[in-house]
Amino acid sequence: MSTSTAAADATIPTTHPFAAHLRTVSSLAPQPEWTPAYGPLPALYLGHGAPMLFEMSDWMMQLHTWARSLPKPKAILIVSAHWEHAPAAISASAPSELVYDFGGFAPVYYTMRYDTPVASELAATVSALMPDTEPLHQHRTRGLDHGAWVPLKIMYPEADIPVLQLSMPTHDPERLLNLGRRLRTLRDEGVLVIGSGYMTHGLPYIDWHDPTAIPGWSRDFDLWAAETMARGAVDELSDYRRLAPGLPYAHPTVEHFTPLFITLGAAEDPTAAPATAIDGFAIGLSKRSIQVA
């Protein structure tokens, strides 16, 4: 774990669920590192939660176990719901100040760090994959936002893998599928490509008096997405605005759903049924997270 990341984690109360998570995972054997013998890494779509994810022990362990089921990546490229920027852009290659793009949480979450190794080699590779007519701009002082650093800090707490964030330049499914296709070759080089969102994200419609309740719109949308992906019906997924049940409540804005199309685009066969790595609900929202080969 990097010095500054470790120092920041040391400020977390020992009774905090994330401190307990770190103690648990620190006792595990080293993770095997990716080599070409493993073949391409999968591409992932995950629900990233919010800082409150650091208080959900079961979900943290699901994410970490998922990460441990894969060889340790050479690098990570992540697209988060929380950086919408057109044309596509990339974050700083060197560790930069994290983006604490949330409010109302405990002070400890605004002191967390995630200082990963320099990702300049990945930045050059990703830039080369873009068309000449759409060169990537690099925001040299922009760090990772919470849609990136929150799940990665749980999955890879050692902070020893280069991480680069790519902005989401559109919500058009076909354009995002095409962007994912451009990123597909990264998987052959041991790069883990991640779309980070939330399968349902209707925060304004959660019953905060009973956060364990699962709203019908959340369950219906999740079931529709799962069944549609299982059938490989990417065209139906792309038509989610017309076909998905409960959409105005499940996604009053769509930025937490659309990273899924980058993940599917990065698949060898976007119509192949993905593997569900995590399912279930948290605070009424679907945690469904998938990986594609």
Secondary structure elements and pairings:
Layout: H1 3-9, H2 17-26, E1 43-47, H3 57-68, E2 75-84, E3 89-90, H4 120-129, E4 137-138, H5 146-155, E5 163-168, H6 173-183, E6 191-197, H7 216-230, H8 234-238, H9 240-243, H10 247-250, H11 259-265, E7 275-278, E8 281-282, E9 285-286, E10 289-292
Parallel strand pairs: 1-6, 2-5, 2-6, 3-4
Antiparallel strand pairs: 1-10, 7-10, 8-9
Notes on the protein architecture:
- The protein is α/β, with parallel strands linked by helices.
- The protein has a single domain (3-18, 36-292), classed as LigB-like (Protocatechuate 4,5-dioxygenase, Chain B).
- Helix content is 32%, strand content 15%.
- The protein has eleven helices and ten strands.
- The radius of gyration is 18 Å and the shape is globular.
- GO terms for molecular function: ferrous iron binding; oxidoreductase activity, acting on single donors with incorporation of molecular oxygen, incorporation of two atoms of oxygen; zinc ion binding.
- Residues 57-269 form the Extradiol ring-cleavage dioxygenase class III enzyme subunit B domain.
- It comes from Nocardioides baekrokdamisoli.
